[in-house]
Amino acid sequence: MQANYDKCLETILHHEGGYVNHPKDPGGETNLGVTKRVYLEHGGTKDMKDLLVEDVAPIYKKGYWDKMKGDDLPVSAFLGREDGTFPQGTAAYEKRGIAVTVPEWKLDKCIQCNQCAYVCPHAAIRPFLMTEEEVQQMAPGLMQAYAPEEPEEKVEGRRPRRRNQDDPILALRKWVPRTRLGHAVMAGEILTYEQALASGLPIREVEIVDALIPNLEDDVIKVNMVQRMTDSGRRVRFNVMACVGNRDGYVGLGMAKAKEVATAIRKAITAAKLNLISVQRGNGSWESSAGPGTSIPFKTKGRSASTRVTLMPAAKGKGLVIGQTGKRVLDLAGITDVLSRTKGQTRTTINYAAATFNALHNMNTTRVPEDLAERLHIQRGRVLE
Q: Which of 49, 104, 133, 326 is the most buried (most CB within 10 A)?
């Protein structure tokens, strides 16, 4: 501590300078950083112009250094603070001026030089070096979000591509979890969507789905314009149905309303992600040879309003024998071969897509014995490597 005091005193005196007596200075006569009033309070008798380092050193030690009581702190007072970190909110007790604005780290401009952490006044930005084991304990979407971006090759005569504002990977960079499941995903305790379903916790944040299944594709099924006459005039709303899936055993369907088409599409995609279900795939056709397949294991039915859809297993290579609307839903679910039969108003696109999705959902409610599931090669969800 004495060595630290000597070093600090040398630095302070170097910056304070010598004798000053400016008429606009409220402190009056000052020499080596000590005003005349402070010097007299400590029993000084010399003229202010004649002060030496030996005269002001006791004042600095008694008036400032000893009041911190660094020598009286036991080692146990630093338990849990070995790395120099402090809990948040301690700046409220700071007596000196603090930063007016808080710096922000921008990942798209980061070159990993650590200069932002060096100039940050209150350690709001701190770099951490992660090991390979720690990287493996991250959700795949978070790994893509926090990985440094490779510079895009510049093509002569072409403007650089701009990232979409609604890009889920960009949203993950600013994601602050608000639920128990979200905190578990951010902490690396849950790494797959299967583990999230097994936890029994509800999925209320769309970022959880983006973090666990980052390769989801979306498709807008239908956009309807709804007009309503009111006292103030004609009110226009847009009703959108969207479907999302990873083409490997997961599919979701959602609807939303908004005043603008873009907002309605964005809300519908979010609703579809929160309505994501796993799809049972297998080889249930008697025409197929033995082995796994990407058809459905058994016949299933679904309905929505007056539209009814029946899905039946098909042999490998048969394709999707279903209407265009149902084909878009099954394609995102990862089903390549299926036979179908429909009843009702299939021209109603929204009901047709909802009935197809309902048929896939009803497949999950059917109990299948283990020996039959093994014989039909039933695979629920995506095929994990």
A: 326
* Single residue among 20, 38, 68 that ends a domain in this structure: 68
Weakly modelled stretches of the chain, pLDDT under 50: 161-162, 384-385
- Specify whether 251 is located in the same domain as 379: yes
- Same domain membership, residue 237 and residue 174: no
Determine the Cα angle at 269 with ends 381 and 221, to 5°.
90
Orientation of helix 349-364 relative to helix 324-333, angle to 10°: 40
User: Whole-model pTM?
Assistant: 0.65
Axis-axis angle for helices 2-16, 53-60 (nearest 10): 120
Expressed in angstroms, the distance from the first to the final Cα of the chain is 58
Looking at residue 185, its pLDDT comes to 92
Q: What domain count does the chain have?
A: 3
- How far apart, in whole angstroms, are the C-alpha atoms of residue 310 and residue 343? 9
Q: Which range marks the domain in which residue 54 is found?
A: 2-68
